[in-house]
Design a protein that fits this description.
There is one protein chain. With 357 residues, the protein is mainly alpha-helical. The chain folds into 2 domains: 228 residues, HUPs (Rossmann fold); 81 residues, Tyrosyl-Transfer RNA Synthetase. It is 51% helix and 7% strand. It contains 13 helices and 5 strands. The strands form 2 sheets. Strands 1-2-3 form a 3-stranded parallel sheet. Strands 4-5 form a two-stranded parallel ribbon. α8 links the parallel β4 and β5. The longest helix is centred in the last third of the chain and has 28 residues. It starts with 9 loop residues before the first strand and ends in a 13-residue tail after the last helix.
């Protein structure tokens, strides 16, 4: 693993390990990571402690999912020689900053986070969740700010989390670094702030709907297409997309899930425009034909990913080596950021060194 030049702007993004990645992860974030890895200093975090917010009783499963999620990203095209994969729990600065940032946020502000409220609703948690579940929202701010990241590639549903991170960075810089509350976000570091105010980098497709057309694509909702799906499995899943249209001669509204997939996966803009036009006019083009074209396009995208994943499935040692190298690089970066934060907040007394044996 090479260490990208620290003169490059830095990005941090990550995933909670919940099993295999799917097409929603690819179009919402991973594709953007691949685009950025040549020009940015990239850290891709595996948030295994965040997984414990709802799966603390499944430690072995979470451990295995850490390996699988890296395997999927490598298969999708992330290059470990250009980016650092980081295990959250191997970077102590993240935990320390989480505790500090929790002091800067009112509890009701955390609970107002719309993504948190939506997760509580979708997962059916009601009032039955651990104290750590809302704390992970604070932890996500530490994930980002521990790296002093300039931008964060995210899906559109994660933008509210980033806004909270921006609030924390501003508050810290104003409280402990004497940055004016009138300062522009882009000037905070130049004015003495420890943390840059990170910006969201939302990919071309902010959110991919599941093939059920009801919720965004999710493994837990059973509406996901995985990179390990066979060609036939992809065709079967795409075939389940429902539009309500009855006949190939019936004019249709392309503002539906099927055409969401057309625009995501068929790369020929002229063909997309033609399909839309014929669909609107009911020009003898059935949903089945369009679904076949979509399935073919998805399978063309997935085929090289499937082949790469087979190579990375041969052993776990390669994945662990990649994670150890990336996490070691992350410690170098985050310890320096943490030291500056502790000095600013008058919490630092001694120098320390953290390293792996």
């Amino acid at each position: 693993m090479s260490n990208p030049s620290n003169t490059r702007p830095r990005i941090l993004t990550g995933d909670t390990p919940t099993g295999q990645l799917h097409l929603g992860h690819y179009v919402g974030s991973v594709r953007r990571r691949i685009e950025l890895q040549d020009t940015y200093e990239c850290f891709f975090l595996i948030a295994n402690m965040h997984a414990f917010t709802t799966r603390a009783n499944e430690p072995e499963s979470v451990h295995n999912d850490v390996i699988e999620i890296v395997r999927d990203q490598l298969a999708m095209g992330v290059d470990p020689n250009k980016a650092s994969f980081v295990i959250q729990t191997e970077v102590p600065a993240i935990s320390e900053l989480t505790y500090l940032f929790a002091m800067l946020l009112p509890f009701n502000r955390v609970m107002r986070n719309p993504t948190l409220k939506e997760e509580i609703k979708v997962k059916g948690l009601g009032d039955n969740y651990s104290f750590g579940f809302p704390l992970y929202v604070v932890g996500q701010t530490a994930d980002i700010l521990a790296f002093a990241a300039h931008s964060v590639p995210v899906g559109e549903d994660q933008v509210p989390h980033l806004e909270l991170t921006r609030e924390v960075a501003r508050r810290f810089n104003q409280m402990y670094c004497n940055v004016s509350d009138q300062a522009d976000d882009k000037d905070h570091v130049e004015l003495g702030g420890v943390f840059p105010i990170p910006v969201a980098d939302v990919g071309k497709v902010g959110k991919l709907m599941g093939y059920d057309g009801k919720q965004k694509m999710s493994k837990s909702l059973g509406n996901a297409i995985f990179i390990t799906d066979t060609e036939e499995q992809v065709k079967k899943k795409v075939g389940k997309i429902f539009t309500g249209r009855q006949s190939p001669t019936e004019p249709g509204d392309p503002d539906n899930v099927l055409f969401h997939y057309v625009e995501c996966f068929i790369n020929d803009a002229d063909r997309v425009a033609e399909l839309k036009d014929r669909y609107k006019r009911g020009d003898n083009i059935g949903d089945g034909h369009i679904k076949q074209e979509v399935a073919d396009a998805i399978n063309e995208l997935l085929e090289p990913m499937r082949k790469r994943r087979v190579e990375y499935e041969k052993d776990d040692a390669t994945i662990l080596d990649i994670l150890k190298a990336g996490s070691a690089h992350a410690i170098e970066v985050t310890e320096e950021v943490l030291a500056r934060a502790k000095e600013a907040a008058k919490l630092g007394f001694f120098e320390r060194e953290v390293r792996y044996r």
